[in-house]
C-alpha cells in the first residue's frame, strides 16, 4: 500500500517535508524523495510496476510449505493499494487485513516504517508478521506482532 493524497489537515506538514527534502543539504540523495508524492508521474509508473511484478510473482511462489506458504498449501493474496486511493499506507494495509482476517491463516507485510510495527501490535490481529527489508547490506528482520504484544503485556 502506498500513501494516498493527504488530508487537508496534513498538507502543510507534507509541503514542509517536500521543501526540506529539496534543500541543497539533501542534494547527496540518490533519488529525490519528492517523486514519491501522489499524483506525480513517477508514482503512476511505480504503482504500475508493483502491480505487474505482483501479477508475475504470484503464480511462481513456491507451494511446498515453509516460510512463504504454510501447510496445507494456500496461495497468498496480493493486494496493491495505490497512491490514488486516499489514506496512509499503513492504515490501508491493516484495513485490508481486518477485512480478510477470517479467511487467512497468517498475514505477512513487507515494510520498514516504524508505524507498521505499532499498527501490528495495536490491531491485535493473530499471526501478523512484518518483514523489514535489509538496509545497507544488513539482514532482513522478521517481526512477530503476537510475540511482541505478549511481551508488552507481561511488562
Q: What does this 3D model show about the protein?
A:
By secondary structure, this protein is mainly alpha-helical. 39% of the residues lie in helices and 8% in strands. It is built from 5 helices and 3 strands; from the N terminus they run αααβαββα. Strands 1-2-3 form a 3-stranded mixed sheet. It is globular, with a radius of gyration of 18 Å. It starts with 10 loop residues before the first helix and ends with a helix. About 8% of the residues have low confidence.
Task: Give the topology, please.
Layout: H1 11-21, H2 41-57, H3 89-100, E1 107-110, H4 114-123, E2 128-132, E3 141-144, H5 145-154
Parallel strand pairs: 1-2
Antiparallel strand pairs: 2-3
Helix pairs in contact: 4-5
Concise synopsis of the structure shown:
Helices cover 39% and strands 8% of the residues. By secondary structure, it is mainly alpha-helical.
**Count of distinct strands:** 3
Helix count, per DSSP? 5
User: What's the arrangement of strands in the largest beta sheet?
Assistant: 1-2-3
Estimated radius of gyration: 18 Å
**Unreliable stretches covering 5 or more consecutive residues:** 62-73
Structural class: mainly alpha
Oligomer classification: single chain
Give the N-to-C terminal Cα separation: 33 Å
Query: Helix-strand pattern, N to C?
Result: HHHEHEEH
**Principal-axis shape:** globular
Mean pLDDT: 77
Helical content class: 25-40%
The major beta sheet can be summarized as: 3 strands, mixed
DSSP strand content: 5-15%
Amino acid at each position: 500500500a502506498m500513501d494516498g493524497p493527504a488530508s487537508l489537515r496534513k498538507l502543510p506538514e507534507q509541503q514542509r517535508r517536500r521543501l526540506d527534502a529539496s534543500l541543497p543539504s539533501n542534494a547527496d540523495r540518490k533519488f529525490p524523495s519528492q517523486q514519491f508524492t501522489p499524483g506525480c508521474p513517477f508514482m503512476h509508473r511505480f504503482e504500475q510496476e508493483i502491480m505487474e511484478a505482483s501479477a508475475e510473482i504470484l503464480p511462481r511462489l513456491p507451494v511446498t510449505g515453509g516460510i512463504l506458504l504454510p501447510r496445507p498449501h494456500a496461495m497468498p493474496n496480493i493486494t496493491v493499494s495505490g497512491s490514488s486511493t486516499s489514506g496512509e499506507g499503513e492504515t490501508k494495509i491493516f484495513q485490508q487485513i481486518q477485512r480478510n482476517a477470517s479467511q487467512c491463516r497468517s498475514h505477512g507485510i513487507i515494510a520498514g516504517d516504524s508505524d507498521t510495527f505499532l499498527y501490528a501490535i495495536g490491531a491485535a490481529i493473530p499471526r501478523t508478521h512484518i518483514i523489514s527489508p535489509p538496509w545497507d547490506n544488513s539482514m532482513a528482520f522478521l517481526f512477530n506482532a503476537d510475540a511482541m504484544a505478549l511481551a508488552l503485556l507481561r511488562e
